[in-house]
Amino acid sequence: MIEVRDLTKSYGLHKAIDRLNFSVNKGEVVGFLGPNGAGKTTTMKIITGFMAPTSGQVKVAGLDVFEDPVEVKKRIGYLPETPPVYGDMTVEEYLRFVAHLKGAERAKIPSLVARAIEKTNLGDVRKRLIQNLSKGFRQRVGISGAIVSDPEILILDEPTVGLDPRQVAEIRALVKELAGQHTILLSTHILPEVQASCERIIIINRGRIVAEDSLDGLTKRMSGSGRVVIRVRRAIFGLAEALGSITGVRHVAAVSGSVQSGQASSNGNGNGLGAVSQVAGEVVFEIETDGAEDTIEKIAAQVVGQGAGLMEMKSESVNLENVFLQLTSSEEQQGSNVAAGVQS
After folding, report:
1. pTM above threshold 0.85
2. Are residues 192 and 169 in the same domain?
3. Which of the chain's ends, N or C, has fewer CB atoms near its CB within 10 Å?
């Protein structure tokens, strides 16, 4: 439904977005994720025809956004970051106005307005002037305006900004309800928003796409790893080296305890073990692994087998926040990820 090819937008020497390529299939809910200033809003404005690109092409439902702008706009419901609502209209008046602008059939407009009001729970304020509504209600009016013409495609830029927790939950439920009926591109920098609503994720940083996959797929591709934290009653001589020699263990480090011998060492795979050759008394180890269950079992068996006195063991998987921070923390980190084949 949406095809973006080599899309670039420059402001002088600064490139807000740089050769973006992605597509959104019919019925998909795709999260467009990135930090503030990454280029999300610029991309949304170009897709919806509100802004011209410097170069590249965008097609919506097979129509070129810049050759058939009117037809494209009929097929899109757009919620900008700041909803363009008119304060001197009532909620109903505004929604009727938007439906007319979108070219909806005159006979269907009353039912379309009623449906949009119901979906966004605006029934109690339908007769009130928009300028007298709270920020949260104005945001919901903006969402109503996006869906009032029952468009094929919804472009939602930060749809839950300014909403209280209950309203956020309602909008997330609405997005899930609209999935399948509409193709949805949801732009946000709020990670729970993506996890709650989206089937696929596109992460953009500094104007470039740095990752594109499902939530599960992205986490696996980015990490292929996990972290195990163990606390032992006594660290037997050579325990760190033994843990580091386990297939699937990438790094071992003592984060607390009394270090008796402080020479850094490595396992057979060349992975650094840190200064943990010999420790006296209780100690905590952080162990980076490949995330496999059998690796975790081998770690536990090694500790027990050496009589170190396993007191605590917990496994921590990589989540979306870890992936997001890893991809967007710096240009250097981004470059290493692209080199590793993360960019799609």
Report:
1. no
2. yes
3. C
